[in-house]
Every structure is written in C-alpha cells, then in structure tokens.
Amino acid sequence: MSARWGMVIDLDRCTGCQACVVACQSENNVPINTEEIFHQRRAIEWIRVERYWEGEYPNVKARYIPIPCMHCAQAPCESVCPVYATYQTTQGINMQVYNRCIGTRYCAVNCPWHVRFFNYWEPRWPESLKQQLNPNVGVRSRGIMEKCTFCIQRIVRTQQEASLEDREVEDGEFTTACAQACPTDAIVFGDLDNPESRVAQMVEQTDRGYQLMGGLGTDPAVLYLKKIDPDAPEQEDYH
Amino acid sequence: MQERHPLRGEAITRELLRPLTQTPMVFWIAVIILGAVLTAFAFAVGWMFYWGLGTTGLNTPVFWGFMITNFVFWIGISHAGVMISAILRLTQAEWRRPVTRAAEVMTIFSLMTAMLFPFLHTGRPWRTVYWVFPYDFERGVWPDPRGPLVWDPAAVFTYLTGSTLFLYTTLIPDMALLRDRSTGWRKTVYTILALGWRGNERQWKLQLVAGILLSALILPVFVSVHSIVSWDFAVSLIPVWHASIFAPYFVIGAVHSGVSAVITLMALMRWLFGFHNYLREEHFDSIGRLLIVVATGWIWFFLLDIIFAMFTRDPRELEVMHQRIFEWPYALLLAFIFVFAYIIPVPVWMFRKFRRNIKIMFWTSLMVNVGMWAERYWLILPGLERKFEFTFMWSWYRPSIVELTLIFGSFALVTMLLLLFSKIFPPVAVWEEKEGVNFAQDIQVGKRTVHATIREE
C-alpha cells in the first residue's frame, strides 16, 4: 500500500484548547507531565500548543500554534543517528525505533522544531491511570528518544483491515488522535498522494498554506494555514 | 638554541629512573586524594546509570551539556602528544627530547578519558556497547555512516591506536634498559615488553624508521581527529554551530590547550621527580615561544568565527551570537575566556624572564586550560539554549552535582593514570636523552664555542 501521510493545521480554527495534546498523551502512552517535570523542562508532548502574546496591553492577542513532528521528507534528525534508530518509512513517516535507540540525543539536538523528546526518567503513571494505557502502543523506557508517529498504530491497523478485505484505505476511514479530538476540526490528517483525500484537496486549494520553517529545505509533511486576521501587521519573511 | 649541560650516560640513567625506584610522600598523598575523587566518580557514574540521565541538569532542548564539553576538552588535550612528538620530531627540534614521552602518554590517557564521556552521556550505555561496537553482521543492521557520531569514534580510535603504537615504539629501548636492571617479576614484564631489544645497529635503524613513519602517518590523523569532533557540531543545523570554520578552529584550539597542558605536566614532573637537569628552563622557554604563535592563531580563528557569523547575516545566527557576546552570563564567560586563555598568558610569555620562570609558566598554562574549558562550554551551550525562533521552548542549563563529579573525576582519572604510568615506565625517554647528548657537539667559531647537533640523515 502506498501513501504519503500528511497533515494540515488551520491556525484560523485553532483555539488553543489543548485537546489534541491530551488526546495524544492518552493514545500514545506518553508519561504524565507533572508540575515537577515541567519545572525541570523535561515535559514530553508529542504535539504541543505554543502560545505567543501579540501586541501591548490592553490590545493583547493570544496566538496559538500546535506543533507535532513535521515528518520532513529530508529530515535532519535521521542522518545524524549513529545506529539508524530513526528513519523514513516508505509512507513518508519519520519513525523512531525504540529498541535500536541508544540515546545520543543528536536527533533532538538537530531538530529545529523541538519535537523529539528524551526519556530522562523511567516513565510512571499513577495507579488510577495504569488501566488506561493503550495496548497497541509500547511504553518507552528511560534513556531513549520518542516522538510523534502520526499514530502509526492506527495507520497499520486500518491498512491491515483494508488488505484483508482486499480494498484500498478510504480517506477519512481513520485519523490521528489529535485530529480526532480537535473540536474545531483545525487538524486534518490524510494521504497526500491520494488526490481525492481531504488533506490533499486542502493543500491544493488553499492560498494560506505555509510550511513551518520551510526555508530550511527539509520539506515538512505538515502544512499550516495562516490565520485570517485583517489587523495583522505585515510580517517580514523570516526564513 | 640548546644550552649545554654535560651529563654522563650512567648519571642520566640513574636520575631518570628514579621515579620508578623511589616514592616520595607527595606521591602517596596524591594517590589517596585522587583515589577519593575517583571513588566519587565511580559512584556518580553508578548513580547516573541507575536512575537515568534525569540526574543531570540536561533538559529539552539542552540535550548536551557538561559531558560533551568535557569530551571536546579532553580530545583537545590529546593533541599535545602528536604536536610535540611527531611534528617536532619531523622538524628535528632538539628541545623536544625530554618532553615527548610525557606528551604522548598524556595523549593516550586523555583520549581514553575523552571517549568515556560520549559513552556515559548516552541514554542507554549498555545498548551503546551492544549496537555500536560489535557490528551486527548477523542481521545486517549497520551503524549509519552518514552521521558524525560514527566518524567520531572511528577517528578517535584511529588516533588512539596510532599514538599507542608510537608510544610503544619509543618505549622499547627503555624497556630493554629496565630489563637489564631489574629482578624478579618486573624483569619478566620488561623482558616481554622489550621484544628482544639488543640495541644493535639494525634494531636502532628499524626503531628510527618506525618512529618517523608513525609520526608521518599520525599527522593527517592529528588534523582529522579534532576536525571530525568539530563536525559533530558543524554538520548540524543549529545556528552558530553550523560553521565551516569549525574544523581548523577546533584543531588550533586543541593545540593551544594541549601544549599548555604539557607545560603544566612538565612543571609538575620537575617538581615531583626533581628532573632539573632534563626539564630545564630552556625547554619552558622554547615551548612558551611555540605557544605564543599557537595562542595567537587560536584567537584569530576565535574572532573569525564571530566575523563569519556576521558575514552570513542570518538572523538566527546573529541572535545567538548576540546572546553569547552581550548577554549574561555568556558575556562574562566570554571575558573570562579572553582573559584566561589569551590576555594574561600571552603577554607574560613574551618575556624571556617569565618564560624561564617555572612557577609562572605553570600557573599561566593552567589558566589557559581553565579558559579553554570555558571556551568549549561557550561554543556549545548558547546554540542549544536558544535553538531557533520558538521562544516557547527556549531553555537554560544548570549542571547537577552528578555532572560536576564526573568532570572532576575525569581530571583525577588522567592524573592518576599518569602517576601510575610513572611508576612503571620512565616518564622521560632515557634513550632520547642519551641520543641528544651523543649528538651534541661544541663547534669553535672564531673565539666563541657554539653548541651544535649532529644528525644522522
């Protein structure tokens, strides 16, 4: 089955509600980021919502931008790993092989989007949440990197079901946890190679699209749609 | 210009072998203190392995910190060995003779210590051993040669192998000397190490050729090792790391810190073993003059690095440069680096009187290395703390007590290994010293007597 998975994030729809973050944490068995972990600045958030303030009081605007892994076609994190623990799948996903990872952290150092996370501690869950762990996703030990996988477990399961039924995967048959949880439908996930898919059509039709730090030439698979804001000051191109 | 200190063969042997036979009280005190530090080091390593890298001060996105800084520092120190022995041997600088052995040994021990750090620094060191060193022929899963973290161990281990062979070649005649003068189990050990050396003409010739060949072969490695260490940073996308000048800049910085460390070591050896007849003021004088050139070269590259960053006019590059030049605490650190590694030592070395003062040379060389350690930190950290424009993710770094223990431990480790080495092998090459005496001649030029050296071509 061929596909190139991609995502469109419409910043005009994003309200910064963090539902995607919570959905991702529970889908992918990401350890609980306690207050102490945040103070250590070692929080693991495969997708995070960055908040920026714009303007001076009282005319302040909060700007939100959800940042998952960009799944670059030319990923800077891949070529620096000494043991091939991170590589590009044939479906355009930047994968992390947990068993192979030795934790040099070079991939994270070389990632301009800060979307690779290191397990500084052994992951822990409170007793009440232990039954909540997703059985389709492994729990990562300390000492290795982890990152957004575009919910690979969902992709694989859907593709297996489709191949058993001898058909192609239909667009919208499944989506990632973050896209599923988004109340405003700001995140759209799908196959960029399928011209019928919603994500491919959005990429095709939009005039607001941009790649986050696309100027670095890594060809991210995540396309952002600019916020529609008539009052916004003209921004200098910062690539 | 060599100054003449006529010494007889037997006196040289007896004096230079003294550290092997006599153990001053200072030695034991040093061993006890270093042993205590090393115990703390071992405990810190165990603690870190047991609890994970959470015990360090590292965070997101400052994934590299003190341990990587220390790795670069010790790789830098290791450059002294080849600088002193190989280059000065090929250029036939006579003053190298009493220094070579110590410099080569320091190369080997500092390389070993340096390589310890990337290993400790990985998240799962047991896997590092498992995945990286025995290549996985069975399953065909190979290390990725695109990444500098594969080039790096390749370069360092080549250098380590080359330096060890080089050191061993120069040790053989001394091993034979010790074999002839020792008894018991020591004699057995030295007999094996001497490889049947009899000191006949053919053996000397082979030893000479091997020494010259190895020093010539090691020279490219000398340049490549620190270039490749610099590429660990330079091939990444991080602003201010991503600089083409990094390779020569790191190499010259390495020579600067390495040769300074040799001075520190020479002063210590002179004090501890009483080698006043061998590590003479003229040697400190020559090496001081060499250092003026090296230090000035280093500061030139240091400034070029900043100028090149401005040359790109890349806003990210300029932001981080601004941070590390003008903002607290990096501005203070920068001043510290300048003062310690250049502004104080170099003018001091300008004066012959100071170059011949062992105490001054000792303290200035120590200052250089404090400055150079800070320089490595200054180069590595700011780029990580403010990597790219996501201000939301900007961070800072404060080393933990575990990391500090590891750093102090690495210094204790190198010192301890050097001390133990001096109990088993002569810390100054006896045969080189004698060869120097044999080659030396007085030539009458008019009314003056000039010291000259005969060389065998």
Structure description:
The complex is a heterodimer of chains A (239) and B (457). Chain A is built from 6 helices and 10 strands. Chain A is α+β, with helices and mostly antiparallel strands and 239 residues long. Chain A has a single domain, classed as 2-Layer Sandwich (Alpha-Beta Plaits), CATH 3.30.70.20. In chain A, strands 8-1-10-9 form a 4-stranded mixed sheet. A two-stranded antiparallel sheet of chain A has the order 2-3. In chain A, a hairpin with a 6-residue loop joins strand 2 and strand 3 (61-67). The radius of gyration of chain A is 18 Å and the shape is globular. Chain B is globular, with a radius of gyration of 23 Å. The mean pLDDT of chain B is 87. Chain B is 72% helix and 3% strand. Chain B has helices at 9-16, 18-21, 25-51, 66-77, 79-90, 100-121, 125-132, 148-181, 184-194, 201-234, 246-273, 281-312, 315-326, 330-343, 345-349, 352-355, 358-385, 401-424, 430-439, and strands at 440-445, 448-453. Chain B has a single domain (6-451), classed as Formate dehydrogenase/DMSO reductase fold. In chain B, strands 1-2 form a two-stranded antiparallel ribbon. The longest helix of chain B is centred in the middle third of the chain and has 34 residues, at 148-181. Chain B has 457 residues and is mainly α. The interface between A and B is large, with 42 and 44 residues.
